[in-house]
Amino acid sequence: MAHLVQSVFFASTNTCQYYPPRFATPNEAAAFEAECTKTVSQLLALCFPPVADSTRYHCSGRIVSVDSSMQWYYLGCALCSKAAIDYDGVDKWCDDHRRLVPQQTQNFYKLRVTVDDNTGSAAFVLLGRAADLLVGLTANDLSTRFPYQRNVLPQELLALEGRDFTFDVQLPKPEYGARGPPEFTVLAVNEQEQPNSCSPTLGRRARNAMPHTPPPN
Known about the structure:
Layout: H1 26-35, H2 40-46, E1 57-66, E2 73-77, E3 84-86, E4 92-94, E5 99-100, E6 105-117, E7 120-127, H3 128-135, H4 139-145, H5 155-158, E8 164-170, E9 183-191, H6 200-204
Parallel strand pairs: 7-9
Antiparallel strand pairs: 1-6, 1-8, 2-6, 3-4, 4-5, 6-7, 8-9
InterPro entries: Euk_RPA1_DBD_C, NA-bd_OB-fold
Region (Disordered): 191-217
């Protein structure tokens, strides 16, 4: 049985029931669910040409590396998790709330991981609650152990490498196309202890494959 990493939006591997009740039959819901299940290469293909797409796609793959070239947490507004900007060297400003939030800031994850299946690899970005649940520890708690090491990955983050997950992701916004390779925002995560039987691509992949990494960076 797959071990479930509780997600932000659902706590079941049967995600069909969490879509809006707009289907006349269970078969229609299942067909929609299947249409939203993509391989890594299929997700990448959806990004070219760039289009606005708010669909929640499912993709199974292995985290092969956690990017150590970027800071793994940032200081954000505790109310909305958006980046808190230094205002005067003491207070912080939240653009979302359009006001100072001097006593309402905390650290949040921004993890960029490389996810691979046997069709390709891509960058997935984990933020906020989805990252908290995946790591099993909030960024605020973990960062207190490494207060001056935002560019050094703790063992708790390195331990994600080599593990298989099913990710719920959204495509990058169209304007991202000019900024480099696509990065997919992770909305929720389930950990897979066995090959995903719903995904022929992942099911055929060898289990002993060896690992191969809106706030500012």
